[in-house]
Amino acid sequence: MFKKILIANRGEIALRVICAAKELGIKTVAVYSEADRNALHVRFADEAVCIGPPRPAESYLNIPAVISAAEITNVDAVHPGYGFLSENANFAEVCEASGIKFIGPPPEAIRLMGGKDRARAAVKEAGLPVLPGSPGVLKDEAEARTIAAQVGFPVILKASAGGGGRGMRIVASAAELPNHFAAAQSEAAAAFGNGDLYLEKYIARPRHIEFQILADEHGHVMHLGERECTVQRRHQKLLEEAPSVRVSPELRREMGERVTRALQAAGYTNAGTVEFLMDEDGSLYFIEMNTRLQVEHPVTEMVTGVDMVKAQIRIANGESLESAIGLDPDKLVFPRGHAIECRINAENPDTFAPSAGRITAFHAPGGNGVRVDSAAYGEGVVPPYYDSLIAKVIAHGRDREEARLRMIRALEMFIVQGIDTSIPLQLRILHDPDFRAGKLDTRFMERFQPAPKARKASPAVRGSASRAQERGA
Ligand code: ADP
């Protein structure tokens, strides 16, 4: 087993990886920016190395700085967490070239899935359903017009290099296409350094359903069922659950097997998530694959009993799936009960403007069936430079209603003072009659939009979106 690993991340996910490493008897190295000197991941790691100024480009995204820290501390492996460098194929390559194991899939898999149009073509080839759309990158607006006419409006233009809910434009009619095409292209070029676009059919009221997979380095792939991440704001997830009320045991088995076969054919390894949209008649269509640990992995952990991060580390260490999850994959019974996760963001719950600053009082809930993954603490500072996620609350119950009620009482017992948080918004969602009935689609959050006056405070809101993108999660 590895003796020491470096965690190329910050916040709750850095602590999550430290927990797994400690339980495996592995030493940890934290890296931190000057803004994170007093962060908990620095305190709880065995060693810590400052890698630069607060701005992500100069620290957490700075490959030479991270690799130097890994070399100085003589680690065997690097865990990238989510966001930052986790889906950077060059980083994975530099790690391997430096003799440091990258805890994730091979660079080629990251590169393939990182181009969303290529990923779409590859999984289609491997037998997964995709939405009707362009076979690859659109050459020009004329091609977009021809394909959109074949597919039928509305369509969605998407940036091939997009992520974090950015780089998408819904086009309702042929008349709207020229403006949207030009704007989407220049936005994608500015945000992702690549203006390539592709196009697919727009589903008006879909659910977002994703399958978690694990694959060892000996050709074995398994799935751990689905998560439902339909509660989104600006195409970013806010509350996730497992299982989905709309996935029957038969559909879970069928799609799980298809996803497993597709990734086996592709030679995929480590953890990954295959994301789908479900239309109103319950059909699933691939939208993208994430080649890393997801923010919402804890709901899968609660309903399967598998520690995803330990499994990732064991797989990277060359162990079999059976060794990674502690039993024969065919004997894993899931879902066990129901789990819900709420993302607690440092933000104003009415205007959604980010709320950085010093936390003056902090009490995290606990009790039966409640888990809190957080790096926040009383007197701790939420820096303005990174994404606003300060805690994830996960409630596990024997069924969805028990998980919902448990989450409500947990959030009522969560004290955070000094900064604003999304806790009041999450409570409104949990009390919503449609949420309670499981009647969800990706436009569910429109009923909780800020008042038009508040929405004028958009420079701050835009700032928050761009930071979320830097994490890419
Ligand atoms: P990102 O990589 O930015 O996360 P995704 O392709 O995963 O982008 O899509 C994020 C969200 O955008 C989806 O969960 C869904 O809400 C919306 N979306 C994406 N594609 C479509 C589509 N074809 N029709 C309707 N909504 C879509």
Report on the structure:
The chain is of the alpha+beta class. It has 17 helices and 20 strands. It is globular, with a radius of gyration of 21 Å. Bound molecules: adenosine-5'-diphosphate. Adenosine-5'-diphosphate is lined by residues 131, 156, 162-166, 168, 200, 202-203, 206, 208, 232, 235, 275, 277, 287-288, 442.
Can you give keywords for this protein?
single chain; 473 residues; alpha+beta; Rossmann fold; Dna Ligase, domain 1; D-amino Acid Aminotransferase, Chain A, domain 1; 3 domains; eight-stranded antiparallel β-sheet; five-stranded parallel β-sheet; 20 strands; binds adenosine-5'-diphosphate
**Helical percentage:** 25-40%
Rg is 21 Å
What structural class is derived from the secondary structure elements? Answer: alpha+beta
What is the CATH topology classification name of the largest domain?
D-amino Acid Aminotransferase, Chain A, domain 1
- Enumerate the strands of the largest sheet in spatial order, edge to edge or round the barrel: 13-12-9-10-11-14-19-17
SS field, number of helical segments = 17
Q: What is the name of the CATH architecture of the largest domain?
A: 2-Layer Sandwich
CATH class of the largest domain: Alpha Beta
Shape: globular
Euclidean distance between termini CA atoms: 29 Å
Give the biggest sheet: 8 strands, antiparallel
